[in-house]
Amino acid sequence: MHIYWTKINQIIDESPEVKTYLLDLPAGFSWEEGSHTHFAFEGFNAGDKPNRGLIRHMSICTLPHENAIGITTRIKDQCSEFKSILREMKPGDEVAIFKTHSNVPLKREGKNVYLLSSGVGLATFRPLVLEYLSNAESVLSMHSLNVDSSKAYLFQDVFATSDDDNFTVQFADSRAEYYEAVKRFADDADGLFYIVGSDDFLKENIELLRRNGVKREQILLDKREQSIAEFLPVELSV
């Protein structure tokens, strides 16, 4: 396992509770859209065992051509030790990234793509949208649906409807509005449905999609293969 040590270059306040940390790009570090990485602080590997309180899985919200590794996260007043440390960090502070992997790269199968997310889950999808907008080959259209009652919507420079690109964006203020939209998307018998959010959010979306005829193989989750079966048991396939 190679550990890349790098520095925070910039901190962007997206909203009162959400920040984006832009990290310097280390030599030899690469990734693709939909990637997450292990993000850690100094001392995480100082003992016999890694200090898991100093490590988190984080989605990367940028693409390599942007020359920065972007990490967007919500930090509430009452938060974990990890988030408390992160909140106090400044540009120039050093962090570690390692074990980078993409569970949800953009599939180019000649189908419509639906991106379903909650709150800062949108950060995982930003690179997929950028990848699609730069090259829509073998993707019929893309539709982003995000539920966020705070109304402090993220990345509005990227998540904006473009008829020319067959890209539509919807922000829902409530779960009821959100799930009504998901039902309409589920009418697409061949669509690909990407879902990012809490485990409960994933389960609710999967149940709704499956109930409306969406097949197991049409649903893509930001989970490792061994975890996907917990949400999408093979025996439920129709």
Return the domain count: 2
Largest sheet report: 6 strands, antiparallel
Give me the CATH fold name of the largest domain.
Rossmann fold
So how many helices?
5
Strand content: 25-35%
Order of helices and strands: EEEEEHEEHEEHEHEH
Estimate the mean pLDDT confidence. 94
Q: End-to-end span in angstroms?
A: 39 Å
Q: What is the strand arrangement across the widest sheet?
A: 4-3-6-1-2-5
Q: Which secondary-structure class do the elements indicate?
A: alpha/beta
CATH architectural category of the largest domain: 3-Layer(aba) Sandwich
What is the CATH C level class of the largest domain, in words?
Alpha Beta
Please describe what this structure looks like.
The protein is of the alpha/beta class and 238 residues long. It has helices at 81-88, 122-134, 175-185, 199-211, 225-231; strands at residues 4-13, 18-23, 35-41, 55-59, 69-74, 94-102, 111-118, 139-147, 167-172, 192-196, 219-221. The chain folds into 2 domains: 4-100, Translation factors (Elongation Factor Tu (Ef-tu), domain 3), CATH 2.40.30.10; 111-236, Rossmann fold. The protein is built from 5 helices and 11 strands. The strands form 2 sheets. It has a 6-stranded antiparallel beta sheet, with no helix packed on it. Strands 9-8-7-10-11 form a 5-stranded parallel beta sheet, with helices on both faces. Strand 1 and strand 2 (18-23) form a beta hairpin.
